[in-house]
Amino acid sequence: MAVQRLDHLSIIVVDDNDNIRTTLSDFLSRLGANVGASENAETALIAIKKVQPDVVVSDISMPGKDGVSLLREIRSLDPARGGLTPVIALTGIGGSLNSIKARALGFNALLTKPFTPSDLLQAISELNVD
Questions:
Q1: Is residue 93 within 8 Å of 112, Cβ to Cβ?
Q2: Domain locations along the chain
Q3: Which one, of 37, 98, 44, 99, lies nearest residue 72 by Cα?
Q4: What's this model's pTM, rounded to 2 decimal places?
Q5: How far apart are CA 77 and CA 106, in angstroms?
Q6: Where are the alpha helices (DSSP H) in the chain?
Q7: pLDDT 10s digits, 36-88
Q8: pLDDT of 80-120, one tens digit each?
Q9: Chain-centre distance for alpha carbon 76
Q10: Cβ atoms within 10 A of the Cβ of 129, count?
Q11: Which homologous superfamily does the CATH classification assign to the domain defined by 10-125?
């Protein structure tokens, strides 16, 4: 199976866990994506407004503003400023979010930790972003 290239994508990774954030950022960068990393929702929103990424990959459980709050702020933006940016939610096993609830909230996909690199690539490819 050929490895999917992400040369054309700009992705913001948001996770308060340094290891997860770094691992995801490095993985996506190696596949050619232009990756920005944020450790919280506040810095992520600043980056999203500045970069207007193709995809946001965000943890749900973070101190302060969580991933759901970040999603609400993204969706409140004008579409030309990133309000329609696809957002993939990341949650731990046993989290209160399931895929039906995640989609109802406005997330485009949900990945439960631990997930594989293939799972992440599949979720990104299903977004149909160019």
A1: yes
A2: 10-125
A3: 44
A4: 0.93
A5: 14
A6: 18-30, 41-51, 67-75, 99-105, 117-125
A7: 999 999 999 999 999 999 999 999 999 999 999 999 999 999 998 999 999 99
A8: 899 999 999 999 876 667 888 899 999 999 999 899 999 99
A9: 17
A10: 17
A11: Response regulator (3.40.50.2300)
